[in-house]
Design brief:
Double Stranded RNA Binding Domain, Rossmann fold, six-stranded mixed beta sheet
C-alpha cells in the first residue's frame, strides 16, 4: 500500500503542475499469486497453482508437532498470498521440503523449494529455536518459525517466477504491456476528454503500449471521477471533494489494482477548462498505473538464479 498526503489545492496550479502528489493507495496482489488462466498467459509461464507442504519427516519433531508445523507454514504462506496447502505432493505440484538441523543448543529450521521434477530450485534457513522448545513441539515457537520462514520463501518464489519470465521471450519482461484505455467518466467541465488525452500521452513508454481496441490487450484501464457536495473551506472559500479512481483489470476482467487520487478543490473551479491540471493529474496517474501493472505482472522483479553447480535445475524447473 502506497500512501501519500494529498495536495489541498488542486485548482490554479498552472505553471506548478509538478507539485501534484498521488494520494490514497495502490492496491495490487502480491507477486507469485496465481492470477488464473488469463493472468498466467500474460507471461506465458505459469507459476505453480499451489505449493504442497508434505509432512516434514526430517524436522526433529514428533508426528503431531511436524503436522502442526506444516499447517503453520501453510497458514503463514497464505498470509503472503502464496497458494500453499499442507498435503502430500501430487503430480505437477511444486512443493516445500521442510527440515531442521541441531546446532549446539538450538535447532535451525530449513526449507527447500522443490520443482515437480524433484529438483531443488531454492533453499534457505530460519532463525534458531531453543532445542528444548523445539523438541517439546512448543506451539508458539513453531508458529513464529513458520512466519519467519514464510517471508524468505515468498521472496524466493517471486524470484523464481521472475526467472521464468526472463527465460520467456514473450513475457512482459521482454515486451511492452498492451493496454486498452476505456476512457474517463464523471469529470466536470472538459475533464473527461482532457484527462483521457493527457493520460494516453503520459502512459506510452518502452514498458507500456496503448492500443485502440481491447482485443488481445493485457490490461484495460478506466477512470471514474466523482465530485462531492460543496463543503466549507478553511480559507473561507467553499470547496468540493474530488476523487479520481484509475482501475486496472487484466484480460479476464479481474482487478489487478487501482490508483486513487483525492483532492479538495475550490468549488466549481473545474466546471470548465482543466488545462494543466489534467496534465498533472494524468502524469501522476500514469505512474500509479505503471506500478500496478509492474507489480501484478512481476516484470520488475529480480530473477532468482539457479542453484550453483546445478545448471540442469533451471531447465527442469521451467519444464515443470
Amino acid at each position: 500500500m502506497i500512501r501519500v498526503l494529498p495536495v489541498r489545492r488542486l485548482a490554479g496550479l498552472a505553471g506548478a503542475a509538478s507539485l501534484l502528489l498521488l494520494s490514497g493507495c495502490l492496491d495490487v496482489p502480491h507477486p507469485f499469486r496465481d492470477p488464473g488462466r488469463v493472468g498466467r498467459s500474460l507471461a506465458r509461464n505459469a507459476p505453480p497453482a499451489r505449493l504442497a507442504i508434505p509432512l516434514p519427516a526430517a524436522a526433529l519433531l514428533g508426528d503431531d508437532a511436524a503436522r502442526e508445523w506444516s499447517r503453520d507454514m501453510a497458514a503463514a504462506l497464505l498470509e503472503q498470498t502464496v497458494p500453499a496447502l499442507a498435503q502430500p505432493v501430487r503430480p505437477g505440484d511444486w512443493w516445500l521440503r521442510l527440515g531442521a538441523e541441531a546446532r549446539g543448543g538450538q535447532v535451525v529450521p530449513t526449507y527447500s523449494i522443490m520443482t515437480p521434477a524433484g529438483a531443488v530450485r531454492g533453499s534457505g534457513e530460519g532463525v534458531g529455536v531453543p532445542a528444548a522448545a523445539w523438541a517439546a513441539g512448543d506451539a508458539e515457537a513453531l508458529r513464529q518459525s513458520a512466519r519467519q520462514l514464510a517471508l524468505s520463501i515468498a521472496g524466493a518464489l517471486t524470484g523464481i517466477q521472475a526467472d521464468q519470465m526472463a527465460q520467456d521471450p514473450h513475457s512482459l519482461k521482454h515486451r511492452a504491456a498492451r493496454i486498452y484505455f476505456a476512457g474517463v467518466k464523471g469529470a466536470p467541465g472538459d475533464g473527461d476528454v482532457a484527462l483521457a488525452q493527457a493520460f494516453v500521452a503520459s502512459l506510452r513508454d518502452a514498458e507500456d503500449a496503448v492500443q485502440e481496441s481491447p482485443r488481445e490487450a493485457d490490461f484495460t484501464v478506466s477512470c471514474a471521477v466523482s465530485v462531492s457536495e460543496v463543503i466549507p473551506g478553511g480559507s473561507g472559500h467553499p470547496q468540493q471533494h474530488l476523487q479520481l479512481v484509475w482501475r486496472v483489470v487484466d484480460a479476464q476482467g479481474k482487478e489487478s489494482g487501482a490508483a486513487t487520487q483525492l483532492h479538495d478543490i475550490d468549488a466549481h473551479s473545474l466546471d470548465g477548462h482543466w488545462g494543466e491540471v489534467a496534465l498533472a493529474a494524468a502524469q501522476e496517474a500514469a505512474g500509479g498505473v505503471r506500478q500496478v501493472i509492474s507489480r501484478y505482472s512481476g516484470r520488475d522483479n529480480t530473477p532468482l538464479p539457479p542453484p550453483a553447480g546445478a545448471p540442469a535445475v533451471a531447465k527442469a524447473q521451467r519444464q515443470g
